[in-house]
Amino acid sequence: MSNFSEEDKQFMQLALAQAKLALDAGDFPVGAALVLNGELLGVGRNSLFTDNRTDAHAEHNLLTEKSEEIRNTIRGKTDYSLTLYTTLEPCLMCLGTAILHRVSRIVIACPDPTGGTININRDDLGSFYQRVWADFEMGLEREASHDLIVQFLKTGKFKSWKEMLAEFEKLKATW
User: Fold this and answer.
1) 41-48 average pLDDT score
2) pLDDT value of position 172
3) Is 89 a catalytic residue?
4) Within 13 Å, how many C-alpha atoms sit on residue 129's CB side?
5) Which is the catalytic residue, given 59, 89, 137, 141?
6) Which residue blocks in 66-141 are alpha helix, DSSP H?
7) Which of 31, 121, 146, 173 is deepest in the core (most CB within 10 A)?
8) Based on the number of CB atoms within 10 Å of its own CB, is 169 exposed (0-12), middle (13-18) or buried (19 or more)?
């Protein structure tokens, strides 16, 4: 695990609060916070069920909402820091959205054994993606995020959740 700063811890707490809000609303509990040059741009949460949209993931919702502000601030610049804090390892869609928004660093609480993508080999991608690829750090508030996900999956609303639950429960044993 990386040495996380106090700011990292504060921003991840904001993401965790969003994950808890998602859980309270009956959504898969994932939250995110977006920080540009040390300043909080916003927070987001999953709203898959409340918005009835398959793509309503925390990271995607947040980055899409802040897209114009990000673009206007970083256009033509290379000396910026855009960090995405997320309580769960991004899926392929969210990782792609983050990369296209030029997120330079992604801080992840919990790995996703069912759909995480940060182990993609960037050397297998085209030169554009290799050039704008983010740095990843994993483990900040890992257990708190994991516990929210397990709590949600234990509701057993869908058959597939039992399989996901088993994978998340095995995951904790590897820590």
Assistant:
1) 97
2) 86
3) no
4) 12
5) 59
6) 67-74, 92-100, 127-132
7) 31
8) middle
